[in-house]
Each structure stands twice: as structure tokens, then as C-alpha cells.
């Protein structure tokens, strides 16, 4: 094993850029000596410190905390640091377990959605559904995506990712009765429970529900089918028509695999 390594060798060995190595030297963590040609030469002690830096940075420790430890390393400070590492790892395990629960739930949902009946109108009863909402008029698919991102940005400290929640857009029944399709009045995420972030409730009640597969250009056709069905059955519709995106571009590039649900509440 060599006694000293040049900055390029250390950079390649540890995957650390030369600028970072110079920064570690600037703040006093590394102390490479200079060779006769003026090049930095990193010794065994520097390499040991780089191992510590690499491990602790992967756990999210700041350079200030790492320097504090390396400058005052003894049995007690090592024990203290190990306890900190243990806490960080425990929190990361809990975060990963929570993420795993979400992923497994999504897997089950997608399997269920793949088996959904399409083209049939059902009466379904829902409780109040806590949600977050962005009221905005949008028409094109690209505008809807932008609106979803705006809503996510507003709640990103609480809402993990878009597909952790059922997402949808609403249409005004009055617009639909006038033959105005594709003009959305809001976008929303349905939350799994009534979290503090919730800013409105989709009211519980009996809903007409219809699933369809394929591109969104079919939406108007299926909305007309629901409105005609409601008229024939003598139902009075209330609230807004909800368009829920159960399988979309987030899961597949094949538009024929898209699954969308239309819902509208029936007045008691």
C-alpha cells in the first residue's frame, strides 16, 4: 500500500470531487502535505478521515458536526456519535417502512384497478372524503398537470408525492348541462384520513360512478351517458362531476391502459 496519494487518485477512489477535497482542507479536516512539485499528497490519516466523512455524510451529518467529532475524538465522543448514528438509522428505517406501506398499498390498488369493470354506471355510497383543493379553471391536459404540481407545491411539506393520494379534477354540472366539456374548475387530492392539511371535504352520500379505460377524449361521451342515465332514473344531481385518475401517465405510457372514474352525487 502506498504511503501517499495525489488528489486525482483520492478523488477517483472515493468519488469525491477535487473541489470538495480542497474544501475539507480549507476547513481543517484534511491536512495533506505538499510534495516537492507542490502537489497535494494525502496520507493514511487523511484516508482514515475520508472513510469517516463518507460514512457520516451518507447518514446526513453536516460537515460541521463531522469536523467537531474528528477534532475531539475520544471514547466518549465516539460513543455519543454512535448513538446519533443509531438514531438517524432508526428514523431512516421508520421512514422506509412507512414508504414500503405506501408502495404496497399502491400495488394492491393497481391490481384492483386492473380488474375494474368499465362502461357501467353504479350507485356507490361514500363517506365525507377529506381533501386538499386548488380552485382554478383549466382545460388542457398540460394545464391540469401544472395545476396538480401547483397544489402539490403548496402542501409538499405534508403531501409526499402526487401518487400517494387519489388525484382528480372537478367539472361544474351547469357547464356539462350546457354541453361545455373539458373545462375543469378545480383539482384535488383525496387524503387517506382527515389530516391537519385538509382544506375541504368532498361530501359523503350516494354517487353515480362510472369507470372507463383509454384516453381522456372519451370523457365527454361518458359524461353524457351519466347525465342521460340520471335523467331517465329521475335522479337530481348535486355538487360537481368528479374525474378521478386511477391509472394514468404516472403508471403507463399506453393510453389504452388509463383508468378514469367519473363520479357525481345524487341528491337525497
Instruction: Please give the order of strands in the largest beta sheet.
Output: 4-9-11-10-6-7-5-8
* Shape estimate: elongated
Helix and strand content put the structural class at alpha+beta
Main beta sheet strand tally, sense and closure: 8 strands, antiparallel
Total strands: the figure is 11
Tally the helices.
Answer: 8
Separation, N- and C-terminal Cα atoms = 82 Å
- The helix/strand order is EHHEEHHHEEHEHEEEHEE
If you average the pLDDT, what whole number results? 88
Helix content: 40-55%
Outline the low-pLDDT stretches: none
Strand content: 25-35%
Write down the Rg.
28 Å
Quick structural gist:
The protein has about 270 residues and is an alpha+beta fold. The chain has helices at about 5-15, 20-25, 45-60, 65-70, 75-115, 140-155, 175, 220-235, and strands at about 5, 35, 40, 120-125, 130-140, 165-170, 185-190, 200, 205-215, 235-245, 260-265.
Q: Which features would summarize this protein structure in a list?
A:
alpha+beta
Polypeptide structure, described:
The protein starts with a strand and ends with a strand. The relative contact order is 0.10. Helices cover 43% and strands 25% of the residues. β2 (33-34) and β3 (40-42) form a beta hairpin. The strands form two sheets. An eight-stranded antiparallel sheet has the order 4-9-11-10-6-7-5-8. A three-stranded antiparallel sheet has the order 1-3-2. The mean pLDDT is 88. The longest helix is centred in the middle third of the chain and has 40 residues, at 75-114. The chain has 268 residues and is α+β, with helices and mostly antiparallel strands.
Amino acid at each position: 500500500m502506498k504511503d501517499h496519494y495525489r488528489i486525482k487518485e483520492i478523488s477517483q477512489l472515493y468519488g469525491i470531487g477535487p473541489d470538495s477535497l480542497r474544501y475539507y482542507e480549507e476547513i481543517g479536516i484534511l491536512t495533506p502535505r505538499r510534495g516537492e512539485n507542490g502537489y497535494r499528497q494525502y496520507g493514511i490519516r487523511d484516508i482514515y478521515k475520508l472513510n469517516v466523512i463518507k460514512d457520516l455524510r451518507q447518514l446526513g451529518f453536516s460537515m460541521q458536526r463531522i469536523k467537531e467529532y474528528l477534532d475531539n475524538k475520544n471514547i466518549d465522543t465516539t460513543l455519543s456519535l454512535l448513538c446519533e448514528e443509531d438514531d438517524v438509522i432508526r428514523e431512516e428505517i421508520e421512514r422506509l417502512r412507512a414508504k414500503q406501506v405506501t408502495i404496497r398499498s399502491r400495488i394492491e390498488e393497481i391490481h384492483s384497478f386492473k380488474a375494474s369493470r368499465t362502461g357501467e354506471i353504479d350507485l356507490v355510497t361514500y363517506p365525507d372524503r377529506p381533501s386538499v383543493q386548488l380552485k382554478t379553471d383549466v382545460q388542457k391536459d398540460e394545464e391540469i398537470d401544472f395545476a396538480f404540481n401547483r397544489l402539490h407545491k403548496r402542501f409538499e411539506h405534508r403531501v409526499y408525492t402526487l401518487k400517494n393520494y387519489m388525484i382528480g379534477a372537478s367539472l361544474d354540472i351547469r357547464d356539462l348541462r350546457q354541453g361545455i366539456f373539458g373545462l375543469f374548475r378545480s383539482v384535488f387530492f383525496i387524503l387517506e384520513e382527515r389530516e391537519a392539511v385538509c382544506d375541504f371535504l368532498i361530501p359523503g352520500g350516494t354517487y353515480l360512478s362510472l369507470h372507463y379505460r383509454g384516453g381522456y377524449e372519451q370523457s365527454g361521451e361518458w359524461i353524457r351517458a351519466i347525465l342521460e342515465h340520471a335523467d331517465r332514473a329521475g335522479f337530481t344531481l348535486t355538487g360537481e362531476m368528479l374525474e378521478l385518475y386511477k391509472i394514468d401517465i404516472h403508471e403507463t405510457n399506453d393510453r389504452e391502459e388509463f383508468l378514469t372514474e367519473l363520479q357525481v352525487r345524487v341528491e337525497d
